[in-house]
Every structure is written in structure tokens, then in C-alpha cells.
Amino acid sequence: MISIECYCGSTKQFEDCCEPIIKGSEKATTAEALMRSRYSAYAAHQADYLVATTDISQRKHYTKTEILNWATTNKWLKLEIVKTTENTVEFKAYFSDNALQNHIHHELSTFTFENGSWFYVDGQFF
To answer: Which domains occur in the chain, in start order?
Structure first.
């Protein structure tokens, strides 16, 4: 098996960083850790994880098909964490679309901690 650097921008290998969280063998311990694992899940096309880590009150707004389409039609280039609090993460996700145009998705995401797990609630886009 080939080791790759984690998509989230840490200095760790994917198998030692976000992959165990995505696979469910570890839990994200902070909102930022969940944000990083969700970015990695987009890059690795793990739509089930993205649905599962969206707050239950918000899941009706996101379908697995839409998530997978967004994940696979873009090439995820880099994640930049701008600012974090206990339950928010401001980030910039750099990606190129299928026409090879570069974009920056700039968002302030809100997270909630329920029953021992972090969940994505919503985001404000810049």
C-alpha cells in the first residue's frame, strides 16, 4: 500500500491522520479535526462519511448523490484553516473544477458536539 500525505494539509500520512476518522476507528476530537476529516472525505470521495457527520437536523439539505457529484467533479488542491473557535472553523478550500478553472471555497462552518461526536451544522460563505 502506498502512503500519501493527508489531504487536510497536516504533515501526517492520510492513514495516520484523517483516514481512521473517516473509517470510524477514531473520532474527531475537535471541530477543526472534523472539518479536516470532512475536507479529506471530499478529496477521497467518501460521501457516506460526509452525510453521517452532518447534523441530523441538516441532512435533508444534502443528498449523497449531490455530495458525491461535488466531490468527484472537482480536484481538491489545498485546505487552509483561517481561524477556529470551539465550535466554528473558518477555512478556504482550494480546488479546480472539471474545466480546470481554479476556485476558493471560503466558509465559516458551525459544528455541534452531541453524544460524544462532532457534527457539521451549517456554513456562512464569503
So the answer is: 14-125 (3.10.450.50)
